[in-house]
Amino acid sequence: MIRRLLLSVLFLLPVSAFAIHPAGSTTAMAELRAKALQLKWPDLRADANDGGNVFGVVVDWPLSGNIVTVVALESGDASILTTGNYGMIGGILHETIRAAAKRLVASAEPRFDDAVPTADLSYPEPGTVRFFLLTTSGLRRIDYKWEEVQKKGGVAYTLFDRAQEVITAFRVLEEERTTGGL
């Protein structure tokens, strides 16, 4: 019960309340990432799965000395976390974020067989983008070099592009919120 309540807080907060800047939030971001990586299929709504293997994706991207983590679930829940002191959680209440999260998860399904089972939750080395696939059979991982995610038309490019769509949806919504558009 407490775990499901935490999941609700983690993924279902409205975007208008998502900015996190308090002291010590670096630890909070790491804890939220770890909880996302430890999600198991029974923890989520069993009726949401479309019959595929992948129900969520966690992307770790080294950027300017920090790691940006994108979390997306097939239900449309999404978050952006960092190893710095900033993150955005929630988004399921906003169609653009929900749709982007679902597209990211759907684009990971064909990569299921390419991903290897893993218990290693470490961050990637600089120059590497790590994709964790949350699957009905456990956590899997694929690492791509930065050059691979930049090659248009490639598998890595498509996955990374879908993660960028989640980030863009959050950014646009935050810009609208802060400029009075919402």
Report on this model:
This protein has 182 residues and is of the alpha+beta class. The protein has one domain. It has helices at residues 2-12, 25-37, 95-108, 146-150, 155-178; strands spanning 54-63, 66-73, 78-82, 88-89, 116-117, 128-135, 138-145. A hairpin with a 4-residue loop joins strand 2 (66-73) and strand 3. Helix 3 (95-108) packs antiparallel against helix 5 (155-178). The longest helix is centred in the C-terminal third of the chain and has 24 residues, at 155-178. Mean pLDDT is 82; it is low at 1-24.
Q: Can you give me a brief rundown of this structure?
A:
A hairpin with a 2-residue loop joins strand 6 and strand 7 (138-145). This protein has one domain. It has 182 residues and is an alpha+beta fold.
Describe how the helices and strands are arranged.
Elements: H1 2-12, H2 25-37, E1 54-63, E2 66-73, E3 78-82, E4 88-89, H3 95-108, E5 116-117, E6 128-135, E7 138-145, H4 146-150, H5 155-178
Antiparallel strand pairs: 1-2, 1-6, 2-3, 3-4, 5-7, 6-7
Helix pairs in contact: 3-5
Helix and strand content put the structural class at alpha+beta
Mean pLDDT: 82
Helical content class: 25-40%
Describe the strand arrangement of the main beta sheet, using strand numbers.
4-3-2-1-6-7-5
Estimate the strand proportion: 15-25%
Listing every helix as H and every strand as E from the N terminus to the C terminus, the arrangement reads HHEEEEHEEEHH
Give the number of helices: 5
| Cα end-to-end separation | 34 Å
How many domains? The number is: 1
Shape: globular
Largest sheet descriptor: 7 strands, antiparallel
Question: Can you count the beta strands?
Answer: 7
Which regions are unreliable across 5 or more consecutive residues at pLDDT < 50? 1-24
Give the radius of gyration. 15 Å
